[in-house]
Automatic annotation (TrEMBL):
Name used for this protein in its record: START domain-containing protein
Every START domain range: 117-315
Claim: Transport is one of the keywords in the record: yes
Entry-linked SUPFAM superfamilies: Bet v1-like (SSF55961)
CDD domains for this protein: START_STARD11-like
Protein source organism: Anopheles minimus
């Protein structure tokens, strides 16, 4: 006997209902359909992770008698250069004035509290060290609620957290809805322009996003007590030489995201003497996303409430697992 959700989905497919302001899909059926699609994607991701882990364990077993692997070779060579994270190589690019300005603005906002001046932040998830807040905002009827998340993770550094967030080599491992990632402009080792295409989740239209991403070390000494501070800032951009928006099957997403990470060490330890047991990474994640197209506001907010906490836990857990047996990277 098919479930109620399955029956609703089949009924919708027969009517060829799709996202749009004139859609006849009831909001509860729209939510059920998207939720089912996201759950299936998560199940597929967990299966891939298990298979990948089994494959890695098999490879380790096969080569352990031959040689000892050098974990340092797994770090990307450009990230080992002295000027990585300074923007030195990106400053000659025409995008640099915008990149520098947006990064500075977003860092300032990320450092602000959520209870200051009655600024409308509402707590919607509170799970141990992780707290998530949102402000309800709409533009032309589309939900673009700003999100702010605060989290604390043990055993990794700020740079490691930002490394895995920035580097596209790892993105498919933790960003479950991703279908394809293209680097459309290799500005510098610490600055890239991406075109990301996301899996279609019926009845919503397929989405893509075009944005620059910049990883930077912060040296303004504002964060008292932190051993180091790193950020990754992503911001939508459209230049004439980049793929245009809404020209094919995809609806363009517009986003501004910043991940701010601070490393704290056990008192009495420094970067030379600390082990992973001495590391604490304080995380602030802020995002404002305009999903484009059309979807019911109540559905979007319900999905965000469920999916954002899962995303942050999945990503931070992934980084911890990746770093366990590797040298510490500051």
């Amino acid at each position: 006997m098919p479930s109620l959700t399955t029956a609703r989905l089949f009924k919708g497919l027969l009517r060829k209902e799709i996202e749009g302001p004139h859609s006849t899909i009831p909001e509860d059926e729209f939510f059920d359909a998207v939720e089912t699609g996201l759950d299936k994607i998560e199940e597929d991701r967990q299966l891939r992770v298990r298979l990948k882990y089994q494959s890695q364990q098999s490879q380790i077993s096969n080569v352990s008698s031959l040689h000892s692997p050098n974990p340092e070779t797994e770090d990307e060579i450009p990230q080992l250069s002295e000027d990585f994270g300074t923007g030195a190589q990106a400053k000659s690019h025409k995008l640099w004035p915008e990149i520098d300005r947006i990064c500075t603005e977003q860092l300032t906002q990320a450092r602000q509290g959520v209870g200051e001046d009655g600024n409308g932040w509402q707590l919607f998830a509170d799970e141990g060290e992780m707290k998530m807040y949102r402000r309800e905002e709409e533009v032309d009827g589309m939900v673009i609620d700003p999100l702010k998340s605060c989290h604390v993770v043990k055993g990794v550094t700020a740079r490691e957290m930002c490394h895995y967030f920035f580097d596209p080599a790892y993105r498919n491992d933790w960003e479950t809805t991703l279908e394809d990632v293209q680097i459309v402009d290799n500005v510098a080792p610490d600055t890239l322009v991406f075109l990301q295409t996301y899996k279609r989740i019926w009845p919503a239209s397929q989405r893509d996003a075009l944005f620059w991403s910049h990883m930077r070390r912060i040296t303004d000494n504002v964060d008292t007590g932190a051993n180091d501070v790193w950020i990754v800032c992503n911001h939508s951009n459209q230049n004439e030489e980049y793929p245009p928006a809404n020209q094919g099957k995809c609806v363009r997403i517009y986003l501004t995201v910043i991940l701010v990470c601070q490393t704290y060490l056990t008192p009495g330890k420094d970067s030379e003497t600390a082990t992973r047991d001495d590391l604490t990474c304080k995380i602030t994640y802020c995002s404002t996303v305009n999903p484009g197209g059309w979807a019911p506001a109540t559905v979007l907010r319900a999905i965000y409430k469920k999916e954002y906490p899962k995303f942050l836990k999945r990503f931070t857990g992934y980084v911890v697992d990746q770093c366990k047996a590797k040298p510490i990277m500051y």
